[in-house]
Specification:
The protein is built from eight helices and no strands.
């Protein structure tokens, strides 16, 4: 990819298929390194980094997770900046870091407590913008499922 310009987001998403996320990861990584940072690339790349740890390679097509080389901390720092943080970021990062905190990279960050804080902020912030997850990528399918499941739990907890 060094001789070519980074793929458009829709082209990177098209590579994101079950058991074949390595090509999508490489395309998103190239976008992250070559273009000005953007929330869509950062969210999807953080998901792929996290998923390479939280799920087995036969489901993801990703190499074994490298805790020391994970981009998750860098991506999370960008996404939680004052300019980028929103309900989607709170939902996605909150879920990932509270459910599998050890898949968020090494370092001093207490990912589980970060995740609980972000998730709590998501739950009190109102509804999520579901079109964010409307494509058929693994990222979209996964977080559509998590959102639906969280809403069912919220209803059950409220007794409605």
């Amino acid at each position: 990819m060094d001789d070519m310009k980074p793929l458009l987001m829709r082209e990177a998403i098209a590579l994101e298929r079950p058991g074949a996320l390595s090509a999508s990861r490489e395309a998103l990584l190239e976008r992250w390194r070559s273009l000005p940072p953007d929330k869509g690339t950062a969210l999807r790349l953080a998901f792929i980094e996290w998923w390479s740890c939280s799920e087995p390679d036969f489901l993801t097509g990703l190499p074994d997770y490298d805790y020391d080389a994970s981009l998750f901390p860098e991506l999370a720092a960008f996404l939680t900046s004052a300019e980028e943080i929103d309900t989607t970021v709170r939902f996605v990062l909150g879920w990932m870091s509270k459910s599998f905190p050890w898949c968020c990279g090494c370092g001093p960050t207490p990912w589980e407590s970060v995740g609980e804080k972000l998730w709590s902020e998501f739950e009190t912030s109102g509804d999520l913008d579901l079109p964010e997850f409307s494509d058929d990528s693994q990222y979209g399918v996964y977080f559509t499922h998590i959102y639906a499941s969280s809403q069912q739990k919220r209803l059950a907890d409220s007794g409605d």
